Amino acid sequence: MGAVLPAGGAVSLESSLEELDGLATTAGYEPAGVLSQRLTRINPKTFLGEGKVEELGQVVKMHDAEVVIFDEDLSPGQTRNLEKELGCRIIDRSWLILEIFNEHAHTREAKTQVELARLKYALPRLTRMWGHLSRQRGGIGLKDVGETQIQLDRRLIRNEISKLEKKLQQIEREKKTQRKSRQSIYKVALVGYTNVGKSSLMNQMTGAGTLVEDKLFATLDATVRKIQKNFPFPILLADTVGLINKLPHDLVASFKSTLDEVRYADLLLKVEDVSHPDHASHAETTDRLLHELGADTIDSLRVFNKIDRVADKSVLEEAKRRYPDAVWLSCKTGEGMEALRKSIVGCYEKKLGGYRLELDYEQTRLVPEIRKLAFVTREDYSGENIVLHLKAPPGGKEKIEALLAAFKASGDGLAVPLP
Ligand SMILES: Nc1nc2c(ncn2[C@@H]2O[C@H](COP(=O)(O)OP(=O)(O)OP(=O)(O)O)[C@@H](O)[C@H]2O)c(=O)[nH]1
Ligand SMILES: [Mg+2]
After folding, report:
1. How far is the CA of 11 from the centre of ligand 1 (A)?
2. pLDDT digits (tens, 9 = 90+) for 192-249
3. What pLDDT, on the 0 to 100 scale, is given for residue 409?
4. CB-hemisphere CA count at 13 Å for 221?
């Protein structure tokens, strides 16, 4: 069930419902029918207008549907009223996404995060479950039992929520220590809409066997891999959870520790599936979520993936003219991988610190060692000392200083930072 709201988003109703269909299928439902309405105002009781609820009831009967899935978020009260009127289960997009996440969560971190989001979602909706129960038992006298039960359950859920929050804080502390140890390495994170090919790209670049599947939200954990081959200095590449329009707020909050791989990255590769008709609005959603995460000021590269699926090459040419700085590739054929590597190195080089180093001629044999630790952009052997201009990655300066100290350097060292 979809609705066009007066505020209207960038995504068309058709696209959003098509996506909902995909989500429902991923979650194991068999979509039987689709209904939509253009709303001028939301009915506080049932979200939809009276007539539409009646029509929906007929569709439910016709298909003998067990569940109606709303593309918009419903309040606990609206859900309750609709269940009463339609006599079947009502869920909304948020819950559907939570179901998928729950199914796909494998690690301790992902499981804890999803469970937390689910409980937060369930808490205000408990009355509805108990409402069912007391109705089934029939007697008004049982209502009080129900009420007490709800309060008991609420308390249990609240306890569970705070337990999970503590567990996540612990996980976060562990990750913080991990991150500290990687401080001096350039961190690149793959971000983007679900199913655009982030994990495929991770595998292409690292040879890692990250799960790649043609389903929504295949990845729920941030996998981090070190790449040394083909890069002048090692980089860390992180694959992250896919994003989607109307991602439940509790889920984003709960996935904070996973999404921290994005927040603490030096460079974001914003991956898009260029063969998807809605890729532009998917990119907008990604940018909006990155803004919410406070990650919109991080350096980024646009990466248009799946070019092998675009039949009309003139469309690609036109798009390339429009986004000259973007990288175009196919994880399937490997086309464009070299261009991506070069672009990443280009971004990295911009971040390197510049230094001027003087060595005496006895230290000439250190130069090859220094080259392993930094880019030498200029070298001058004409003066009294050897003068090197360097571009060093984080931590590189310290390593060179240690190298010089070990050889009892007598030059000026790295004292003069270049602009
Ligand atoms: N034709 C084609 N298919 C691709 C390409 N890259 C990825 N795919 C397919 O797209 C689907 C999704 O790929 P994933 O790498 O799992 O996508 P993801 O972005 O990690 O998805 P989530 O983890 O769900 O967010 C898979 O079926 C891949 O085989 C490509 O360049 N061309
Ligand atoms: Mg993935």
Report:
1. 22
2. 999 999 999 999 998 766 666 777 887 787 788 888 877 878 899 999 989 998 888 8
3. 46
4. 16
> Scanning the structure block, which residue is given the tokens 């005496």?
360
Question: What is the phi/psi pair of residue 246, to 5°?
Answer: 60, 40
Ligand 1 shell residues, CB under 6 Å: 194-200, 212-214, 216-219, 242, 305-306, 308-309, 330-332
| CATH class of residue range 352-417 | alpha beta
Probe target for ligand 1 pocket from 101, 106, 331, with the most ligand atoms within 8 Å of CB? 331
DSSP state of 341: H
pLDDT, tens only, 125-158: 775 544 444 444 433 333 444 566 777 778 888 9
pTM for the model stands at 0.82
Radius of gyration of the chain (CA): 28
CATH superfamily of the domain spanning 187-350: P-loop containing nucleotide triphosphate hydrolases (3.40.50.300)
Ligand lying closest to the C-alpha of residue 204: 1
Q: Which fold has domain 2-104?
A: Rossmann fold (3.40.50)
* Cα–ligand 2 centroid distance for 212 (angstroms): 6
